Amino acid sequence: MNRVRLIIFNAALGPLDYRVPDGMTVEPGSVVVAPLGPRQIVGIVWEEDRLPAQSVPDAKLRPLLGVLPVPPLRPQLRRLIEWTAEYYCAPMAAVARMVLSSGGALKGPSTVTEYRLSGGMPERMTPRREQAIAALEGEQATMRELAGMADVSEAVLRGLLQQGVLEPVQVDCDRPYPRASASFAPPDLSADQQGVADRFIAAMEEDRFAPFLLDGVTGSGKTETYFEAVAHALDHGRQVLVLLPEIALTEAFLRRFEERFGVAPIVWHSAQKSTERRRAWRAIAAGDAQVVVGARSALFLPYARLGLIVVDEAHEISFKQDDGVRYNARDVAVMRARFEKIVVVLASATPALESLQMAESGIYTRLVLPGRYGGATLPSIATVNLTEEKPERGRWLAPTLVKALFARMERGEQSLLFLNRRGYAPLTLCRHCGYRFKCPNCSAWLVEHRLSQRLACHHCGHETKPPPACPDCGEGDCMVACGPGVERIADEVAEILPDARVVVATSDTLNTPEKAAEFVAQAEAGEIDVIVGTQLVTKGFHFPELTLVGVVDADLSLEGGDLRAAERTYQQVAQVAGRAGRGAKPGEVLIQTRHPDAPVIAALAAGDRDAFYSAETEARRHAGAPPFGRWAAIIISSEDENEAREAANRIGATRPSLPDVAILGPAPAPLSLLRGRYRYRLLMNARRSAEVQQVIRDWLGALNFPQGVRVSVDIDPYSF
Ligand code: ADP
Ligand code: ZN
Q1: Is residue 441 situated within a structural domain?
Q2: Given CB 3.0 to 4.6 Å as the disulfide criterion, which of 16, 76, 134, 214 pairs with 339?
Q3: Where is the signal peptide (predicted)?
Q4: Contact indicator for 268, 245 with CB cutoff of 8 Å
């Protein structure tokens, strides 16, 4: 009797046992198709003794239906799946799914049919056909993706195919990628850089788990040093994963990689076409993909011979996934390296306190690049006290900052104004009745975007045209903007400096790789005088003419009331400040604030990073916050408010009483309505030693909830 235990891709069900029919061979890690009721489902064969036993007798087992033609998942990856599920209190199935995230792609053949416009015209034009033809210019993708891009049904496209307006193209997903070469254009490293690179390489040669914290100010040459480790991996036929935040802005990075290694790396992110993902997935699993640069989900891909992981800008909060499996890619990257017995590099100019603490306690090796590469100086930083020096009414830039902008214009240098608020204004009112434009699906205001003439919710993506009249009192021409967004600051700059070429740089305006690349090219060529941007522009750029950075409102991120607010403010301001003076000319940074004496602002102005970190360390220690204590959140949501509240209360009423764990709530979550779901939350604060996950599993495992209620656990949460 050949019995196997599977993780099946249904998060509601645990492992299930099946029979291996005669003539079929499977091993742990094999990806198989199995019957589930009347349906077929994908599963992964697992070591039987690592999963709970099943009581179904041999005679009742159903046979597996088939084995998918992909390499079995390696034990290192299976251990990572187990660890991630355990640590983040997530179903194994949900984690395993991320590994096979190209889902259907796996089942398909290596050749895929895509479609593109042939240049012909249909016999009969309809509005939808016209819309499709206009939208699909230059595109090539599957029917389904084209339908999404053109916002028409697939039936419309099939009509166009029949008429020869669309033509099929066969794409081979197994065609090889061009090869990167370690020796294409090696740099001359400085002595400091060489010292760091040597440490990486020595650890790689020992084939052991070695976590490094690469700590160096912006522009210190961190990228060049870990590129040496990449080169070493290439020379030894090992694969490399580089995790980056904000995938939209990797354009500059890709170019730099290509200059060093001769070809662009393989890119992995969720917005890619399914065909590209399939091709990448197959090459990664086969061991043919050399270097993958990706967003956090690239961490769970089935690399055949991973030899190095780099997490660049490792402090970035976008490494934390905030729905589904709520994992932190920075931490999972370290675990993956541990299971693979390889080197992992966390690179940052402003490391998270948690990472510094890991170095302090000897778990990570901290390597420091002390100054900017080539002797470029760090910018001078000063605060502008907004309580003393007020901008004019209805304006947001104080005289000192305005003067500095003028000076840059006169000298033909560039300025960057940073404000982490997309759109024109964060809140819009009716001038007659005071009605606030609010998202119907979320407890959040709609944000006016003048460039695209939309009111948008930044949480669920809901968008409407600005209405001609107030929905409440019916008066026309009613909207007034409250507070500043980047678009409004750009307007203000245009008024102050009518000749300036001003560009708004946000995820709205740079929403494709092409637009991002165009922006970078313009900025580098000095064709932009003032950039007004969100945190999208705080990293990765190197604009030699940029000599002034103005932080429009440093208090914004401080006022969130969350326990990481100070750290986040420090990181954001330090990162954006790092954009100034990267060329030959020195940079200046002006921080507008109403709290120049707040410890984080004072530390920024004094350029005293240690002062900030030691104050923050003390505050965290005092609060029992990470890294000294642990936090976890339990979030309960339902489309029915009463149902959500009752479920939250029931969880609250059955809370365990433990000496080393404090449990707060339930209370409405900060976004108490999100995408149409009402949300409540309990917060746990525990000693480091507490078995938080076990406590949560025992507690929640004993409860049952109505169908519509979702209970999710957030270990080490970021947003409070
Ligand atoms: P970081 O990643 O620490 O912000 P970078 O690696 O981007 O720093 O380096 C900053 C700048 O210095 C970049 O323009 C980079 O090309 C340049 N640079 C760094 N190291 C070298 C080197 N060894 N030789 C030539 N240029 C270098
Ligand atoms: Zn919304």
Answers
A1: no
A2: 76
A3: none
A4: no
Mean pLDDT of the chain: 91
| Residue 338: both structure tokens together | 């541990």
- Strands 343-348, 306-312: pairing is parallel
Stretch 690-698: mean pLDDT: 92
Alpha carbon 463 to chain centroid, angstroms: 23
| ipTM confidence score | 0.97
Indicate which atom in ligand 1 lies nearest the CA of residue 225: 6
Whose CA is closest to 43, among 51, 33, 35, 53?
33
2-47 pLDDT, tens digit each? 899 999 887 778 899 999 999 999 999 999 999 999 999 999 999 9
**What does the pLDDT read at residue 561?**
60
CA distances from 364 to 192, 328, 356, 691, 700 (A): 19, 17, 8, 23, 34
CATH number for 149: 1.10.10.10
Binding site, annotated residues: 430, 433, 439, 442, 457, 460, 470, 473
Which of 155-169, 523-537, 550-564 has the least mean pLDDT?
550-564
Instruction: Say what the pLDDT of residue 355 is.
Output: 96
Ligand 1, residue 578: give the atom nearest the CA.
4
Question: Do residues 599 and 566 make contact, with C-beta atoms less than 8 angstroms apart?
Answer: yes
Q: Counting Cβ atoms within 10 Å, is residue 309 exposed (0-12), middle (13-18) or buried (19+)?
A: buried
Helix H or strand E encompassing 193: helix 191-205
Same domain? 334 vs 398: no
Which of 134, 155, 172 marks a domain boundary? Answer: 172
Let me know if residue 161 belongs to a domain. Answer: yes
Identify the CATH number of the domain in which residue 642 sits: 3.30.70.600
Q: How many alpha carbons lie under 13 Å from residue 429 in its C-beta half-sphere?
A: 7
Same domain, 365 and 401: no
Name the domain count of the chain.
5
Q: What is the pTM of this model?
A: 0.91
What the block records as the tokens of 653 is 């009423």
**Mean per-residue pLDDT for 543-558?**
90
Ligand 1 centroid distance, CA of 178 (Å): 25
The answer to whether the CB of 187 is under 6 A from ligand 1 is yes
Residues contacting residue 376 through CB under 8 Å, at least 6 positions apart: 219, 581, 582, 583, 584
Using the mean position of ligand 2's atoms as its centre, give its distance from the Cα of residue 671 in Å: 10
> Residue 59: which domain range?
3-84
CA separation (Å) from 494 to 113, 241, 532?
49, 43, 11
Binding residues for Zn(2+): 430, 433, 439, 442, 457, 460, 470, 473
